[in-house]
Each structure stands twice: as structure tokens, then as C-alpha cells.
Amino acid sequence: MSASPVPSGPATPVNAPAADREAHWLANTYRPHEANLTVRAVVVGMLIGAAMCLSNLYVFFKTGWSMGVTLTACILAFGSFQLLQALRLVKKPLGVLENNALTTVASGAGYMTGGGNMAAFGALLMITTVRPDSTAMIAWFGVIAALGVFAAIPIKRQLINHEELAFPTGTATAETINSIHGAAAGGGSGKVTWLAGSALFAAGLTWVRDAWHWIPATFGLPVTLAGRALADWTLSFKAEVVLIGAGALMSFRTGWSLLLGGLLTYAVLGPALIANGVITTVSYKAIVAWTLWPGAAILVASGLTSFALDYQSIARSFTGLTRIFRKKSAEDADAGIAAVECPEWWFPVGFVALAPIVTGLMVWLFQIPLWAGLIAVPLAVVMGFVAARVTGETDVTPTKALGPVTQLIYGIITPGNLSGNIMAANVTGGIGLHAADLLTTLKTGWLLGAKPRHQFYAQLFGVLAGAAIVVPAFNLIIPDPSVLGGEDWPAPSCVVWAGVSKSFADGIGALHPTAKTAILVGLALGVALALFEKLAPKKLRPLLPSPAGLGIAMVLPGSNCIAMFMGSAIAEFMRRRMPALAEKTVVPVASGLIAGESLMGILIAFLIVTGVIAR
Predict the structure, then answer these.
(1) Listed residue (110, 58, 53) closest to 489, CA to CA
(2) 3-class SS of residue 511
(3) ∠ CA 458-464-466 to the nearest 5 degrees?
(4) 226-254, pLDDT tens digit by residue?
(5) Which of 55, 144, 288, 328 is deepest in the core (most CB within 10 A)?
(6) Nearest of 548, 18, 5 to residue 331 by alpha carbon
(7) What CA dihedral angle connects 224, 227, 229 and 231, to 10 degrees?
(8) What is the C-alpha to C-alpha distance for residues 489 and 484, in angstroms, rounded to an integer?
(9) Residues 90, 92, 96, 102, CA torsion sign
(10) Helix (H, G, I), strand (E, B), or coil: what is residue 489?
């Protein structure tokens, strides 16, 4: 049974004043009498969000990426309620705005791995090997995320209602919800079927591989390089479909950049390092201990350059700040829209309530001086405003730029404090990500006619679920931090954060001279790629390597790069040759492969820890 089609009113007048656009939305799009945040939406949203948080945790430590949540969550929610109806466990189908609220809950939970949370936590354990108290870390991640949710309030109307920024993922989610709930939504059920089928396949393969050990984890080719088998250089095929699914959700440009970076790292740089005596063993850890530095340099330089080139977006982001302090205009005093939106006074109240907690945790957990902690939270909120606008315009939250900026600041003001350096950057990344995440889902709600206040509450429910699950799950699958940065758990983002922190705290004087040269080359390459990406003609941009793909490839095993390239290539082939089939299958199948393998992998880890099955 499907819901009725979503009514759509007349298009918003082009170039209309902001007040007129809001009045038009209230009259033609807003649907005040339909269910939004119901109890069942919260419960199912928290369950789906917790599952996707587990999935993202697994994927993050394998690839360095946190995968998108909203598109998968809305399809999974639709399918779950169809199944519950078929079993006669629920009578009423899931409504469009219920799905939107449910997806908002799931997104708040599923993205708990992003924003530098797991990158910082993993890097902290790699450097200090001291695991902070789990309850304190749950509070840490939860409060940072909640502060990011509050930070979205004062800029929501400016970015979404008035300027109508794209927020591409939010727009795509609204279109997906419309399509699967529409009267002719055979595609909705089809997407659910593809997602469920691929998830079952991936789960079965993972069980056969990791629990029964019937198939090997990697397949090498009978080819040698510099007298060693390709597999010794990590250039092999992995029986991990989660990597293929992750690649399918990337752009093809990122995919082939990963392959290029992997071949450069393990087929060119690795043998050269061995031949020149810079490293003495052919192993993933030995090679990455050197290639980390040019890889991190590419990521940091390209991120900061792209950030600086978007100076107009940065400047515009402060219009949201000035609205808090300006005397309210007639447009802002409109009773209709004011009764619907979150009151802007919620932000200062939330800041006053949560900022002291964040600061106190910084001092207690990470020995950051009180005065330095007092700087961190306001700085992070300002950067959160900037991150939200950049996300709205580009669909990329610039944590790779904002994190190193904060690490640099704290490297200067608190020299030698490695844990403080890392976790101060976590504050910036976490607040920025969750502000941007709520605004992305609010964009979906704006297009569907949802209640913004209900989505605000929904995001907080999701944050609670995500914070409660992510720390215990991390302790389960990574019981020994020494495995981070190894071939099984490459954790590339953790490796980069730890490396950047060490360089800011201790300097780079102790590095091998060739590594210092590589850093300079990486910085120059990162700046050049970012400039070309911004200034080159649009036709040439797909031919330029992605700096993110190239940089991350230098801290990933070559086998991971190959698998993700294969996923991106398959998806690109389908989009070009079979666009209709690709629209129905690429996102659901890729999401299913990721969810199936990651959740089964976590279950197997639990069974190993409890002694049910042998390692």
C-alpha cells in the first residue's frame, strides 16, 4: 500500500522578496495538519539511525569516509513500514512527512561517526593509547553534536527560506521521498527490494568469509614487482563488497583518483623507498609511515585552498550571525512564519547551557587549559556557520579544512598537548557537521512542507541515539587501538589527524629528509589541484585528479583503492549506458552492500569477543 502523491503548489516566484517567498511557502507547500514527528517515527528512526551509525563506523575505519544517511534511511523506512503493514503490525502507512522526520532522526544518529568524531577518537588512541571513560566520551560526542544542532537555528531562514541554497543531498532526499511515496511508486518498492537483496548477499558473503573462513579475504595476482608479489605491496583484490558499495556512492572522478593514488603509492613510491633505503621492509605500515606526510599535505592544502577560494561564501555566512543582533524587521516579525520556525532565542539559550559542559569536558578529559577551552566553543560555532553555508552551496562539509585550522591554532597556543590539539579540532568538526546535517534535512522538510520545530526535535533524538551507540560499538570492534592504521583497519582519517597533530606539536625536524621534501611537494600539489578545480573550464574538471581521492589513497591499502575504483566504475558505466536502471539500483544496491557487510562484520566481532566463534 502506498501513500497518496505529494501535492505541489505553484512554483516559488523567481527573485521574490524573502517575505513573499515565506508567505508563498506557508500558503502552498506547508502542510500543518499532516503527521510529522510521531512516536513510531522517533522509535524506528532511532533504530535505523543506530544501525546506520554502526554501518558508518565500520566503513569509516575501512575507507576514511562516512557514507550518506538520508537517502538510504528514507528508502529503508518506507520498506520497513510496508513490511510491518503486510504483517499487520501497523495499520496506517508511513506518511511523507513522517518519513522526513524519521529520516532526520536517523541522520542525526548515523552521522555521529563524522565531523571528526571517530577521526579524533581514533587518532587520540593511536597517540596516547589511553582510552577515556566511555560514559564521558558519550557525553562528549552528544553535547558537541547537540550544540551543532542549536547552531543551525539562527541561520536556517537566511540560507534556506531566503537564499534558497541548494543543499543537494537534502533536495535529492525530498525527491526520493516524493518518488517512493507517490501513487505510481512501483519504483519505491523496487528500491527497497534491491536494497534488501544486496544487504542479504553482502551479509552472507561476510559470514562465509569471516566466520566460516571458506573464502580468503584477498586474492593476489601471480605478478611480481621489484622482486616481490603484488600482494606484498597491498595490490590485490579484496572480497569486501563494502568497498565496492562505497566506491559506487562516490563520483567516478574520486574513484579513479583513488586508483591513481594507490598505484602511485605502492607501485612507484614504495619500491623507490625500498631501493633507496628510506624504509627497510615491504609492508603497509612501513610504506604509509612515509606516504602519510605527502598525503596529509595534499588533503590539508587542497582543503584550505578551496576554503579560501570560497571567500564569498565565507563572507555571506556571517549574514546569518548579524540577523541575531539586528533589530527585527517587519519581514522577521511575520507571525505566520515565526510561529512555524524554531525561535532564534533557542540558540543563545542552548549555547549558554551546553558550552560550559563542552569546556568542562575539554579541561577534565584532555587537560586543555580553561582559557583555551573558553576560546574553542565560540570559535567552533562561528566555523559551524561557515561550514553550513559551504555545505548548502557545494554539498561538502569542509571538516578537512576546519579541523587542521583548529589543530594549528591549538598547536600554537597549547604546544605539546597532543590530546588537546586533536580534541579541540573535534569540537570544530562536530559542531560544523551537525549544523550542516540539520540544515540539509531542513532543506528536505522545506521542500516537502514539514514542521521545522519537529525536525529540530528529531535531530536531537538522533544525536542521543548516535552518541549512545557509537562509543560502545567502537570499543567492540576496536578493542586494541594498535590495530588502527593496519591493513585490516587502515583508519586513514585517524592516521592523518594523528600525523597533523604530531607535526604541529613536535615539528617536522625528526622526519627523514625525503619526507620533508614530500610534504612540500604535497602542499604544492594540493594547492595546484584546488586552483585547477576552481578555475579550469568545466569540461576539463572531470579529467583532473580529485585531491581528496589522491590524498586519502596514500594512507589506504592499495587493495582498498582498487575495490573502490571498481565500484565507482561500475556505477559510472550504468549511469552512462543504462540511466533508468542506474537511477533505480545504484544507491539502493550500494547502500545494501555497505549495510549488509558492516552490520554482519560487527555481529561477527561481537561473537568473537564473547567466544561464540573462533577468530
Answers:
(1) 58
(2) coil
(3) 100
(4) 889 999 999 999 888 988 988 888 889 88
(5) 144
(6) 18
(7) -110
(8) 5
(9) negative
(10) strand
